[in-house]
Specification:
alpha+beta; about 20% strand; 6-stranded antiparallel beta sheet; globular
Length: about 625
């Protein structure tokens, strides 16, 4: 637009910027959903975690080369540019500069300048060069698929749970300039010769590049739409060549055998987590992968962090938590002095109804001035913690995410209460137990039970988990009934357990109002059955077969009779037929619904805010604080 106005010699213009429609943070299926504005906030925290301390971005925010050249540290930035292009050159990224063929695809470079700082390396200047493959360039021609799978957090938790119960160490490694390792996509494309490239080319003693010349790209550059897909196909083929087999529904989770030793392998793009019984096997796997890569991988040894999640590997258990993420989060908000509370939301039905009935009379900007944080951004930060390893946040976060467009002071206060709860429980997470002690790992005391001595007298210590082996998957189901006074839709809560702690959970607002509590519970059971089949499929392909039906614990007698005995009621004749697939799964011994007392149904955590005693009781069970009978003793 500006270029056109310049050609027309118009000196002034008025431009109005608009934003995408702001929506509630729930999808049409009633599940939490993140939008780009929320993902940006989470990304900043993850960048800080990756560099182990707060990023020194204050002086490099929106830094361009022109500004960098005016700084005293310009020589360091120039070295960083050359280092990035040297890495690409070592991977045979560039051909000889040439005149562009007719109708060829020519892309611009995008340079990103950052200062990274950590205790081991000190301050490091980094210049990253990527391809501008966005639609604004108009040059990308998509000849193949662009989808590249990544593991979700359920895949990661299954990986950790299996490593724990199979007495494996978890090691880590990552690939440098990963996309450049893969073959080029079908489209031959070129990069424009910018100042950075011209300077580097001349410094390499290769002479001046004539005006109008472009650079052929031989491999893949980050930023091209097909680059992630190409790297996925490349690394997947390498792993398959070494007899690693991925699962159908979790294609980034593999199991293989190296020198007779069983190995689990998880990859998040270029970050690898490897579960083995010895460091020698880990080193051999890395050596094999390095032989197929142009640049050697970075080896991290025993993993302590993986994609923002903290991992504590000990003699008797493995614990995952998001303490580092929360530390950075509180630091970014200036909330390091919050007063902790014992539960994340008030356990009061009248308070929940007040949340539903209150709508904002102020604009988001007015509320931001008084509350000092963005409601949508805070909800996004909480959603990530919830889906990572904090199932007890499910109900409060799903409830409050419904008010992202109409948040009032009461909703801001409720979100702030969740942060106060997290401030006192930063290192809480999920503990997966081993079958045998691993003597060469630290002997760390397990997380203590949250129930105090008085509460233990009413605690049902013989939990349902006692009847299962560590590899046996089982779940808890529960639903409220029409507690939301705005739309009267019920909330389903589902939690699945493996190796002593939760590996998958869901808190979902049902898509239609239920006309009875039985209907609400049956819809929840049907949803739980689908989740069970998904998890069973992954475990079966990882050689952890579920020999018996997956038990789903349900506390509603009507839903149990409908599912197990096929006993219909007048209130069930209108239920969508697809939900009755549950009866077929029960008949085929894939799932089995069993009755459980409401007082020990851990799925209560995901359907309502329970009181402090019941909250701690369920959280002890779900988080793995209850030592299973098959786990090693102190």
């Amino acid at each position: 637009v500006i270029q056109q106005l310049r050609q027309e010699q118009i000196s002034e213009c008025k431009i109005r910027f608009t934003f995408d429609e702001v929506k509630n943070c729930l999808s049409s299926d009633g599940l939490p959903q993140l939008y780009f504005d929320q993902l940006r906030d989470i990304r900043k925290i993850h960048q800080a975690i990756r560099n182990e301390v707060t990023l020194a971005t204050a002086n490099t925010a929106r830094l361009t080369r022109r500004k960098a050249m005016t700084r005293d540290d310009w020589p360091e930035w120039n070295k960083a540019e050359h280092k990035q292009l040297d890495q690409y050159d070592a991977q045979n990224m560039f051909g000889e500069p040439c005149l562009p063929p007719p109708n060829s695809a020519i892309f611009h470079w995008v340079w990103i300048y950052l200062i990274k700082e950590n205790p081991t390396e000190g301050i490091r200047y980094k210049a990253r060069a990527v391809c501008d493959g966005s639609s604004r360039g108009g040059q990308a021609q998509i000849h193949g698929a662009t989808y590249a799978p990544t593991p979700d957090l359920t895949d990661f938790r299954i990986f950790v749970a299996l490593c724990s119960m199979e007495n494996k160490y978890i090691f880590g490694s990552d690939v440098s300039n990963a996309f450049a390792e893969a073959p080029r996509c079908r489209q031959q494309y070129y990069m424009r010769v910018d100042t950075q490239f011209r300077s580097w080319w001349k410094a390499k003693g290769r002479g001046d590049i004539p005006s109008g010349y472009v650079i052929p790209v031989n491999k893949n550059l980050q930023g091209h739409p097909e680059a992630p897909r190409q790297f996925h196909l490349h690394i997947d083929k390498i792993l398959r060549d070494y007899d690693f087999k991925p699962t159908t529904h979790a294609p980034c989770l593999y199991r293989g055998t190296i020198d007779g030793h069983d190995v689990l392998f998880l990859r998040q793009v270029d970050d690898f987590a490897i579960g083995t019984t010895s460091k020698a096997i880990y080193d051999k796997i890395c050596d094999q992968l390095d032989s197929n890569l142009l640049e050697p991988m970075t080896r991290h040894g025993l993993l302590k962090h993986y994609n923002g999640v903290d991992i504590l590997q000990t003699r008797n258990f493995i614990t995952i938590h998001c303490g580092t993420y929360l530390d950075k989060l509180f630091e970014s908000h200036g909330w390091n002095d919050l007063t902790p509370v014992s539960i994340p939301m008030k356990a009061d039905n009248s308070y929940i109804r007040q949340l539903d009935a209150t709508a904002s009379t102020e604009t988001e900007r007015q509320l931001l001035e008084t509350q000092r944080f963005r409601y949508r951004g805070a909800i996004g930060e909480l959603i990530w913690a919830m889906v990572c390893c904090r199932p007890e946040l499910s109900f409060p976060v799903v409830k409050l995410s419904q008010f992202s467009t109409t948040a009032a002071d009461i909703h801001y206060d409720a979100v702030h209460t969740i942060f106060r709860y997290l401030s006192g429980t930063r290192d809480h997470g999920l503990t997966y137990w081993r079958l045998r002690p691993m003597s060469d790992l630290p002997d760390v005391a397990p997380p203590p039970r949250l129930c105090n001595a008085t509460e233990q007298s009413i605690y049902h210590d013989a939990t349902t988990a006692d009847t299962f082996s560590p590899s046996h998957l089982f779940g808890y189901l529960d639903s409220d009934w029409a507690m939301d006074i705005r739309h009267r839709r019920s909330i389903s809560g589902i939690i699945f357990m493996l190796a002593g702690a939760a590996v998958s959970w869901k808190c979902r607002v049902q898509t239609t109002p239920a006309t009875s509590s039985t209907e609400a519970e049956f819809l929840c059971a049907s949803d739980g059955g689908r989740m069970a089949l998904h998890l069973r499929s992954i475990l079966d392909e990882l050689n952890v077969p579920q020999q018996y039906a997956t038990v789903l614990y349900e506390d509603n007698r009507g839903a149990l009779l409908m599912a197990t005995a096929g006993q219909p009621t007048r209130q069930s004749r209108h239920i969508d037929i697809r939900n009755f697939a549950l009866l077929d799964w029960v008949e085929r011994d894939l799932v089995d619904l069993e009755s459980i007392s409401t007082s020990v149904n851990a799925a209560d955590l995901a359907t309502k805010q329970v009181g402090p005693i019941l909250f701690r009781r369920h959280l002890d069970n779900v988080s793995g604080r209850l030592r299973p009978p098959w786990a090693p003793c102190d």
